[in-house]
Amino acid sequence: MVRMAGVSLKYGDMLALEDATLDIADGEFVAVVGPSGCGKSTLMKLVTGLLPPTGGDIEFDRKRVTGPVRGAGMAFQNATLLPWRTTTDNVMLPLEIVEPYKSQSRSNRKALEDKVQNLLDIVGLGDFGDRLPWQLSGGMQQRANLCRAIIHEPKLLMLDEPFAALDAFTKEDLWQVLQDLWMHQKFTGILVTHDLREAVYLADTVYVMSNRPGRILHRCHIPLDRPRRPETTFDPVYTEIVNDLRAKIAAVRNAK
Ligand SMILES: Nc1ncnc2c1ncn2[C@@H]1O[C@H](COP(=O)(O)OP(=O)(O)OP(=O)(O)O)[C@@H](O)[C@H]1O
C-alpha cells in the first residue's frame, strides 16, 4: 500500500530524512518511533504527498505520489473538532466533502447518519451523538476524532501522536478503541508515537529511526496475537520487545 525507496528530504540546506526505504502491506499497521526531531512527521507528510521528496520515490496504492493523495485519513494530537457541530455532525463532515458520499449526503442523509451512528457505537459514543465538543472529555473528543478520520473508509490512516495529550488510563482505553476500528475496517495504519508500549501494543511492525538526518535503522515485527487486550501488556514477549526497543532508542539517542 505504501512504498518508499531511498527517500530523502531537505528543508533548505538541512537534511531531515535520508535514504528512507520501507514497504507497508495493505491492511498492515505500522508504528514509527525515534528521537525527537528525527523526521517522523516529515515522513508522514511525504507519504501523504503534502511535501515532495528531494530524492527517491514514494508510491501509495501502487501509484507514484506526486501531490496530496486521495484516500488517506489523518488524526493528530489535538482533536480539532468543530466547536459548533455536534459529535454526529463532526463525524459526518468528511461524508459531506468526499465522493461518493458527498453526492448522497442530501438524498440519502439517513443512511449516512446510520453509518456515523454505527461507528460511534463501536467507540462507545453511541449516546453522545447530539453533544457539542465542549460537553465531551478529552478522551471522548479523541474517540470522535478517530471516527471522523475513518468514516469515509480511507485506505490509509495516518496518526501523528494521537494520544499524547491523554492521561495513561484514557490512552490505554483508546488503544483498544483504535484496534477495534482497525479490525472493523482493516485500513493500513501508520502511527507516529513516542510511546514504545503503545507502538508494540498496536503495530504489526515497528520502525526505529535514527537521530537527524532520520534514517530507518530497525524494522521489528511484533508477533503478538490479535486482538491484543490489556493483559497483553503483561505478556513476557510484549515486555521483552518494549525493553529491546527502549535499548535501541537509547543507543540511537546517544549516538552522534
Ligand atoms: N518546515 C520546516 N522547515 C524547516 N525545518 C523543518 C520543517 N519541518 C521540520 N523541520 C525540521 O526537520 C527535522 C525533522 O522534523 P519532524 O517534525 O519531521 O521531526 P519529528 O521526528 O516528527 O519530531 P518530534 O518527535 O519532536 O515531533 C527537525 O529538525 C525540524 O526542526
* Radius of gyration of CA atoms, rounded to a whole number: 19 Å
The N- and C-terminal alpha carbons lie at a distance of 34 Å
| Secondary-structure element order, N to C | EEEHEEEHHHHEHEHEEH
The chain-level mean pLDDT equals 92
Q: What is the CATH architecture assignment of the largest domain?
A: 3-Layer(aba) Sandwich
Secondary-structure content class:
alpha/beta
CATH secondary-structure class of the largest domain: Alpha Beta
Largest sheet: 6 strands, mixed
If helices are DSSP runs of H or I spanning 4 or more residues, what is the number of helices? 8
So, the CATH homologous superfamily of the largest domain? Answer: P-loop containing nucleotide triphosphate hydrolases
General form: globular
Q: Low-confidence parts lasting 5 or more residues at pLDDT below 50?
A: none
Count of β-strands: 10
Spell out which ligands are present.
Answer: adenosine-5'-triphosphate
How many domain regions? 2
Beta-strand percent range: 15-25%
CATH topology name of the largest domain: Rossmann fold
